[in-house]
Amino acid sequence: MIPRIIAHRGFSSLFPENTMMAFREALASGATGLECDVQLTKDGEIVIFHDEDVYRITGNRGLLKDFSWDEVSRMDAGRHKGEKFRGEGIPRLQNLLELIKNKDIVLNIELKNGIIPYPNLEKKVVEMVEKFNLGPKVIISSFNHPSLLTVKDHNPHIKTALLYFARMYKPWIYTTEVGVDGIHPFWMGVDGALVKGAHKNGLFINPFTVNNLEDMFGLLKIGVDGIITDYPDRLSQLVHEHTPKPRVKPLQDKTIYYRYQK
Questions:
Q1: Burial of 189 (0-12, 13-18, 19+ CB in 10 A)
Q2: Could you give phi then psi for residue 123, rounded to 5 degrees?
Q3: What residues are labeled active site?
């Protein structure tokens, strides 16, 4: 299976993170997956935004949870990346689901509820995914592991993944208790034994956030299922350079079979 190229907050190395521009450019660069972060506004809209405080991205002061959607929709999420991006707005989750609904990609939705425990965030996200019939394309992840249990309560068929930084001892034992489908570890703690153990226990593994070509290559070599990166263009080129390509060789009886180049 070809590893997934999962663009972290979209093509966030070159474009304003978590904006529709960044997601569109990631797909154009060869990404086969997108990663985004979601939080709730004061009036309950699911918006795509990473920080709890809006200042770094927008220049406004305050926590996202204290603004209404009308206020958030008028904030500038592009200018911090450069004047040419001025005017790029903060999208709602439904905008991104609309973009991907007919595309063959995976969407990783990270619930940003580790610091602010947004009431009903899990339920709202699951319902929005169901509204677009995108359950099979979605992975819901979080550093708030109990939150993933709540996701499964609302829809046991949506895939979930643990996010974590520390090196865990046999994480597949812990995942059995949480009941998730995969793990998203910090890439520096990933080795062949972890990948093998995850796969043996039926878990997928998508490390984050990997931006160096040498590190990407090493992770691909040990068999990760996907890589979350700020540089989907680099990873796309690497994946396609090292993916076996079919070649045709005629047999004596003139039938055709496929062999894979190494």
A1: middle
A2: -60, -45
A3: 8, 50
